[in-house]
Every structure is written in C-alpha cells, then in structure tokens.
C-alpha cells in the first residue's frame, strides 16, 4: 500500500492537520439533523480524509465496508435512451461518486440517478441514522444545469439523505447550491504541518531523517500534503539511508514544461512554436490538465522575466486560460499564449538590446 | 405526511413556513395570496429574487392551503430543475396535466378552486425552446390551470411568458425581519443570542434567510446554546478582513513577486476568490488615499474578472491578474506595455 493511503488518518480524532475542523465536524453530527456540507480547498489538502473520517463517525465501522462498482444507467430522455456509465463506491450507509465524469450528460446523472438515491430511505433503517449520505466529488466541474438540478433535491429529500459535496474552488459552485450547505473550508497544510506528518511517517517506518530533510520535501510540495508524502516515498525508494542533500526529483511533466519555458525564452520563431506544439500534444496525450500546464509554464517564465514583463505575461496567461475554458480545444489556447509571449518578448529584446 | 423520524431534518426544512401568512418580508405577494384564499381568484404568477428569500416556500404553502393534503397530489404538479423539463416534457407531461378537466370534489376546510396549479420552480434553468413550447399550453388551458414560475433571474424567462404573469420580486430579508425570524427559532430551540450576535448574523447572511438558519444551527452544534458574534463569523466562512488588507498591502509594495506570493497564499488557504474580490472591492472603494481614477481602473478589472470566474476561469490566474493590474493602477503604469 502506498504511504498516502497507509497513513491516511481513519477517524476524526486521529486527524492531526485539521484537528479543529475535525472536532467541529464531530459536534456537528452529534445530532440527527446536521445540514448538507460543502467541503472546499486546494488539491491534496485533506478534504477526502476528513469526509471519510466523518462518515465513519456517523455510521461506525459499517461505513468502511465499501464495494466499488461500475454501473450503467439507462436514461430515457423522451427522444432516445442514453447509456451512462459511472463508477460508484458504496457501503450500506453511503454512496460516493463523481457525477462530472458523465461530461455534458451530467445533468441526467443528477436528475435521474442522484434524485432516485436521495428519495429512497436508507436500506438499513435500523441503523444509527435515519438518513444516508451521498458524497459527490468535484462538484465545481458540474455544468450549471447539473448544479441547478441539485437544488430542489437537496431540500425535498433532506429527511432521508444528506449530501456531502467536495470541490477545489467554491467560486465555481453556484450561489444557490452554496446557500443550501454549511461550507467547510479545508486549507492547505502549512509547511511546518507537512514536516510533522512526514516525521510521523518516518518514525512509523523506522527511518532516519537527516536534519532539514523533511523541511526540504515540504518546501518542494507547494503545500500539497499528498504530494509531499509521495515525494517522501519516492526518495525512500530511490535511496536509503537518505543523504543530507537528497531531494525529490521533479515530476516528469513539470520537468517537461520547464524545458518548454527554456525553449521559448531562447528562441522566438514560427519554427520554435511548431516544436513547442509537439510538446504540448505530448503533455495533453498524457492527461496533464491544460490549465496545470499553463500555470506551470507561467511560473517558470516568471522566474526569469523582468518586472514589467511579469505583469504583462500574467495577464495573458489569465486571458488565454479563460478563453480555453470557453472553447473546446485546449491546444489552440496554449499555443496562442506561447505565440503572444514570443511576440512580446521579442519586442522587448529588440527594444532593450537592439 | 408526518415524517418518520421527526428530528432528522435540518433546521431550514424544520422551520419552513407551511402557511402563506408566516412567510416574512414579502408583504405584497402575501396580500395577493391571502386574498386568493378568500376569493379563489389567482393569476399566473412569476416569483423572482435571490436564494433563500421564500419563493419556493410561498408557492408550496399556497398550493397546500388551497387544496389540502388529499387533493394536493391530483391538483398540483411541481416540477423543478431536478426534473427533466426539456421540450418533450413540456409537450407531454405538462400539457397532459394542464388539459385534464378539474373534478368537482371538494374538501371541507379548503377553498379547492376549480383549477389546477403547475409550479415550475427554478424555471431559469429551462431552455428558451422549452419555454416557447409552454406558451400555447398556457393559453389553451388557462381556464383550468394556473402557472407559477419561480426563478432567481427574471431575465432568463422569455418575455411572452413573463408578460402573462403577475410578477413579484422577493426581496433580500431586511435586518429586522431576519432578526425576528431568527429569534423565533432561538426560542424554539432554547438558544441564547444577544443583539450583537443577531445583527452579525443578519450581516453575514446578506438577506438570505436559509443561510442564516444554517449558520445558526451549525453554531449551536459547535458552540452550545450561547452564541457569540465570533462563533457565527467562524462558521460562516467570511474571509477575515486582514486577508483582504494584506492583499492590498502587497499590491502597494509595487513588487510583482510580493503580490504573487500573497495570491498563492490566499489560494492555498482555500478562500473563495469570487467572495474575496467582492470584499477587495469594498476595501478599495473605501480607502481614502487612492485617487478616483486608480479606483476606477481597479474596479473595471474586478468586473471583468468576475465575469471570467463565472465562466469557470482559474481562480489563481484571475486573482493574480487583478493583483497585477492593481499594482499597475496604483503606480500609474500603462495598461499594456509599449517599448
Ligand atoms: N490530517 C492528516 N494527517 C495526516 N495525513 C493526512 C491528513 N489529511 C490528509 N492526509 C494525507 O494527505 C493525502 C491527501 O489528502 P486527501 O486525499 O484528503 O486530499 P483532498 O483534499 O481530497 O485532495 P484532492 O482535492 O486532490 O482530491 C492523503 O492521502 C493522506 O495521506
Ligand atoms: N420569507 C421567508 N420567511 C420565512 N422563512 C423563510 C423565508 N425565506 C426563506 N426562509 C427560510 O429559508 C428556507 C429556504 O427558503 P425557500 O426555499 O423558500 O427559498 P427560495 O427563495 O426558493 O430560494 P432558491 O432561489 O435558492 O430556491 C426555508 O425553508 C425557510 O426556512
Ligand atoms: Mg480528494
Ligand atoms: Mg427555491
């Protein structure tokens, strides 16, 4: 088992990083009438960990007996029958799924699948709770329509069902849905907190950590705890005993983006643009999210640019990411950003150095 | 229907008014509907306004009061965004229900007027095509059917439908009304809220009573029966003033890297950027030593960014863009570079 799973705290009182949030959650579910919840915060901050521990707090160990299945739903839209396949994780008390996986058909998932589940009383009515829990991941990726479809369901069936919604950016969840939940912010752990978690794991694994080693990994992780733990395990696999200056290797794709930034800083030409396009394709084919590519590229460029240019380039990055969101072919917008960058940078070079 | 397990509903549902007269703050519509209970006259209705102001509550209450529990099922069709309401449904389900003649059964104690009610809740999520398909149905069966349209944004309802309805805007609840409703719940639940906590709660809920009730319930669970303003603020997720101020301070340093660091920090803390920008706007507007021209430039940027966020743009990039433009405005740097 990977350390990220092995050392995921299983109960609310073992959650160390967000101990205050965990204590609050425990009190919140002490009665039968807790509100719907919306967890939000950056990736790898510990949302899922809290949610799983909370469900265990509500239902006891029974909630840990989960089965994973790929279910196909046949949905009659009046004109045709859609088949939607979705992965679901369920126990006797709760169901977890990711409705945005249905893409532009997500509305039907909410209207048919989720509503049906919410309507029905829990299978185990003798259990501790009179309701069951539906965990919906990545609700910020749901279309507006699908989000609207949640609204009345959340009210109408609130006696038999509680929703726990989870997302990275709550700005993308409509106001009407947010108004129906208690919003729980899960911030990224500080570097110090990450160091503590790493040292804890080190102790459990009987590892000797050189001074400053955990801190270096924490600094590299961008306050993403999952990443820090993964880096830590990679280091262990790579070389143990650890050496005092050992560092985690950067992720492959990040390394690749960093090369792109060097490419376009050294030469601004149609030929180079074409070469960079191939690299973008490569990244996209490997399922790296285009906005992550753009953000990483921006970060790399910002390290090397003049102050005036920083303002300009960050503006265009925001501009093209927005366009990308509206459009459907990410490659066009990544490329447009690079072309824009090249032209600005070239002009700057000519103006400064002739 | 009596709930099986009475305590298992969140307070927002537990304290949903069952009768029109208990809906707070929306006097105009209440007057019209109270009248309906006597005369049985009812125009088509259009309710619009922000979340948590009583629109769904009012529509459901009047329908229940008109028909009583037994007739409700056969006389009222409630469709909301969780139902498929595409053009097909309009042409079949809605039309069929609208066309059925009304029986003469009456239940003692209820007015049981000779028409049915179709409630289209969250109607702003219906497509224009589906709305257009409704026009005919509405006209053809207006003798035996009344329509209720409910939405947040009236502009999403096509004119031909809107013009056939009596329109009512549901206002955000005022501080006094909100307070008295909250007091009522506090009494029922045995909670203690001083006047300062009450006004804090009203302020952070911004006229949305549903939100106020959720905050109240959460605070009650977390902090017991005596609730202070700080308790309420901590459950509400309002962004602390310092966070907003330090973003402005970072911009005032004029250093891009300083601002970038602050922005990254805000994102890591998980604060919702749309809300942060609303609070940033307040701070900018109320800061005395920023000249109007600079304020205008920053506000313009905030407006553009808000739109981008609604479109689903990345929060970090958008906030960084705002911070960068704020620096450029404060230091009178041109909007685009000229070499
Ligand atoms: N309180 C904690 N103490 C120790 N380790 C933790 C804690 N919370 C989370 N972790 C570790 O961090 C990893 C990531 O956490 P989690 O999966 O909960 O993140 P997440 O917020 O759901 O991320 P994402 O948004 O990317 O899905 C977990 O696998 C776990 O190992
Ligand atoms: N005017 C009001 N008077 C009394 N209670 C109210 C009022 N408005 C809202 N509430 C409370 O808030 C809850 C939600 O109200 P309601 O469902 O009517 O909101 P809505 O206007 O339909 O919102 P949305 O646009 O999000 O659907 C109710 O259950 C009730 O507890
Ligand atoms: Mg997760
Ligand atoms: Mg409503």
Automatic annotation (TrEMBL), chain A:
Assigned keywords, A-Z: DNA replication, Nucleus
Annotated signal sequence range: none
CDD domains: AAA (cd00009)
GO molecular function, one term: DNA binding
SUPFAM superfamilies: P-loop containing nucleoside triphosphate hydrolases, post-AAA+ oligomerization domain-like
Compartments where located: Nucleus
Domain AAA+ ATPase positions: 33-189
GO cellular component, as recorded: DNA replication factor C complex; nucleus
GO biological process: DNA repair; DNA strand elongation involved in DNA replication
Coiled-coil annotated spans: none
Known role: May be involved in DNA replication and thus regulate cell proliferation.
Subunit annotation: Heterotetramer of subunits RFC2, RFC3, RFC4 and RFC5 that can form a complex with RFC1.
Family to which the UniProt record says this protein belongs: Belongs to the activator 1 small subunits family.
Name by which UniProt lists this protein: AAA+ ATPase domain-containing protein
Automatic annotation (TrEMBL), chain B:
Membrane-spanning residues: none
GO biological process, one term: DNA-templated DNA replication
CDD domains assigned: AAA, HLD_clamp_RFC
Keyword Endoplasmic reticulum: no
SUPFAM superfamilies: P-loop containing nucleoside triphosphate hydrolases (SSF52540), post-AAA+ oligomerization domain-like (SSF48019)
Region forming the signal peptide: none
Annotated keywords: ATP-binding, DNA replication, Nucleotide-binding, Nucleus
Superkingdom: Eukaryota
Keyword ATP-binding among UniProt keywords: yes
GO cellular component, one term: DNA replication factor C complex
Record's subcellular location: Nucleus
Residues in AAA+ ATPase domain copies: 41-173
Assembly with partners or alone: Heterotetramer of subunits RFC2, RFC3, RFC4 and RFC5 that can form a complex with RFC1.
Family: Belongs to the activator 1 small subunits family.
Function field: May be involved in DNA replication and thus regulate cell proliferation.
The name this protein goes by in its record: AAA+ ATPase domain-containing protein
């Amino acid at each position: 088992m990977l350390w990220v799973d092995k050392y995921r705290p299983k109960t609310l009182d073992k959650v160390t990083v967000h101990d205050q949030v965990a204590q609050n959650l425990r009190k919140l579910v002490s009665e039968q009438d807790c509100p719907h919840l919306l967890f939000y915060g950056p990736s790898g901050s510990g949302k899922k960990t809290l949610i799983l521990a909370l469900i265990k707090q509500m239902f006891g160990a029974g909630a840990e007996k989960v089965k994973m299945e790929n279910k196909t739903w046949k949905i009659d839209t009046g004109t045709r029958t859609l088949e939607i396949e979705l992965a679901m994780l369920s126990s006797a008390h709760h169901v977890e799924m990711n409705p945005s996986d249905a893409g532009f058909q997500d509305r039907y998932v909410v209207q048919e699948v989720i509503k049906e589940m919410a309507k029905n009383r829990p299978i185990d009515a003798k259990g501790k709770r009179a309701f069951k829990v539906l965990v919906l991941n990545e609700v910020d990726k749901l279309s507006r329509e699908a989000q609207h479809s949640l609204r009345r369901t959340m009210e109408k069936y609130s006696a038999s069902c509680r929703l726990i919604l989870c997302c990275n950016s709550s700005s993308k969840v409509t106001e009407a849905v947010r108004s129906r939940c208690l919003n729980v912010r899960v911030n990224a752990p500080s570097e110090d907190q990450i160091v503590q978690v790493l040292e804890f794991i080190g102790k459990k694994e009987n590892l000797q950590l050189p001074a400053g080693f955990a801190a270096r990994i924490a600094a590299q992780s961008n306050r993403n705890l999952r990443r820090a733990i993964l880096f830590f395990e990679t280091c262990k696999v790579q070389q143990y005993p650890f050496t005092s200056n050992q560092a985690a290797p950067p992720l492959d794709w990040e390394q690749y983006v960093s090369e792109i930034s060097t490419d376009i800083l050294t030469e601004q030409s149609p030929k180079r643009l074409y070469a960079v396009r191939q690299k973008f394709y490569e990244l996209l084919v490997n399922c790296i999210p285009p906005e992550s590519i753009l953000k990483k590229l921006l970060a790399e460029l910002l390290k090397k640019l003049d102050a005036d240019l920083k303002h300009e380039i960050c503006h265009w990055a925001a501009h093209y990411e927005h366009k990308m969101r509206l459009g459907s072919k990410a490659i066009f917008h990544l490329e447009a950003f690079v072309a824009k960058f090249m032209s600005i940078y070239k002009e700057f070079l000519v103006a400064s150095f002739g | 229907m009596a709930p099986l397990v009475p305590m298992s509903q969140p307070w927002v549902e537990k304290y949903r008014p069952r009768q029109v007269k208990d809906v707070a703050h929306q006097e105009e519509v209440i007057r019209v509907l109270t009248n309906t209970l006597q005369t049985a006259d009812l125009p088509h209705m259009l309710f619009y306004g922000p979340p948590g102001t009583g629109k769904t509550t009012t529509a459901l209450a009047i329908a229940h009061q008109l028909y009583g529990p037994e007739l409700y099922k056969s006389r009222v069709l409630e469709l909301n965004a969780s139902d498929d309401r595409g053009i097909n449904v309009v042409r079949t389900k809605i039309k069929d229900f609208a066309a059925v003649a009304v029986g003469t059964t009456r239940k003692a104690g209820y007015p049981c007027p000779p028409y049915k009610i179709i409630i289209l809740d969250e109607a702003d999520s219906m497509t224009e095509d589906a709305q257009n398909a409704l026009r005919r149905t509405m006209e053809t069966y207006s003798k035996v059917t009344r329509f209720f349209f409910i939405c947040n944004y009236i502009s999403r309802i096509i004119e031909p439908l809107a013009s056939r309805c009596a329109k009512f805007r549901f206002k955000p609840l005022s501080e006094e009304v909100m307070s008295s409703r909250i007091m009522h719940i506090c009494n029922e639940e045995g909670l203690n809220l001083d006047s300062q906590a009450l006004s804090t709660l009203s302020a952070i809920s911004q006229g949305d009573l549903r939100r106020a009730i959720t905050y109240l319930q959460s605070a009650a669970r977390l902090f017991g029966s005596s609730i202070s303003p700080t308790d309420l603020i901590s459950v509400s997720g309002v962004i602390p003033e310092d966070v907003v101020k330090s973003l402005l301070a970072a911009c005032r340093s004029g250093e891009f890297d300083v601002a970038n660091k602050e922005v990254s920090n805000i994102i890591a803390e998980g604060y919702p950027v749309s809300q942060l920008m609303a609070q940033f706007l307040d701070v900018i507007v109320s800061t005395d030593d920023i000249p109007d021209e600079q304020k205008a430039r920053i506000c313009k940027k905030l407006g553009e960014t808000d739109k981008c966020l609604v479109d689903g743009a990345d929060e970090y990039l958008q906030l960084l863009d705002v911070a960068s433009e704020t620096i450029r405005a404060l230091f009178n740097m041109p909007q685009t570079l000229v070499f």
